[in-house]
Amino acid sequence: MIGFDLVSKRYEGGHQALTDVSFHVDAGEMAFVTGHSGAGKSTLLKLLAMIERPTNGVVTLDGQKLNTVRPGDIPRIRRKLGMVFQDHRLLLDRTVFANVELPLIIGGVAPADRGRRVRAALEKVGLLSYEKQLPEALSTGEQQRVGIARAIVAKPAVLIADEPTGNLDPQLAMEIMTLFAEFQAVGTAVLVASHDLMLIKRMKKRVVVLDHGKLVADVPATEVV
Ligand SMILES: Nc1ncnc2c1ncn2[C@@H]1O[C@H](COP(=O)(O)OP(=O)(O)OP(=O)(O)O)[C@@H](O)[C@H]1O
């Protein structure tokens, strides 16, 4: 579902962010990407989201090689991908409902179907009763859950998250990671960048480790202790 084959990324100005990174994540599999600050975690996710392009190598999303995607096709392919960020990036002047509805509007889903799907997404993250609230009325953890509902409302094949628990206390962070694992259980491929090793160990999922842009370890879930 997600493929990196000998992927390298050099930013303009000469900084080498990734070097010959190869790994694959299957449908229904969840993996963490970890490593020190500047190791290349965000860059890896940006290549998958087509926010950046690789310098070398091939990135694949649901069987599609992203290198050859024409700019006009990017929105259609991005719909296969749900994205969650550390700073939830919600629209503060819109209700929780309207924030979660946005990907469905962009995706051309008929108005008659949108309400049911938004409520199903809010129910999955435990926020059904918050639909009429503005994001500011919610706690940080609840705002992050709205961000997750928005990411999964269009039923993406792949869910990616960049430091989704960076602003949360350990208990809330664990709840958010457990939520990601639930999407994995229903067949979504989930890739989460995090530097929180304690949390990663508790989750017992596959761990891909980057060090100065190189993949230095790929630990299967069964070997995470
Ligand atoms: N747009 C950019 N232009 C130039 N260099 C960049 C750019 N974005 C990232 N870099 C560099 O690429 C390297 C990898 O950065 P990246 O953000 O992918 O790391 P990271 O592991 O996500 O770090 P952090 O945990 O601090 O977010 C860093 O040295 C960074 O300075």
TrEMBL record:
The keyword Cell membrane applies. Residues 2-225 form the ABC transporter domain. GO terms for biological process: cell division. It is found in: Cell inner membrane; Cell membrane. Its main location: membrane. GO terms for molecular function: ATP binding. InterPro entries: AAA+_ATPase, ABC_transporter-like_ATP-bd, ABC_transpr_LolD-like, Cell_div_FtsE, P-loop_NTPase. PROSITE patterns: ABC_TRANSPORTER_2. Belongs to the ABC transporter superfamily. This is Cell division ATP-binding protein FtsE.
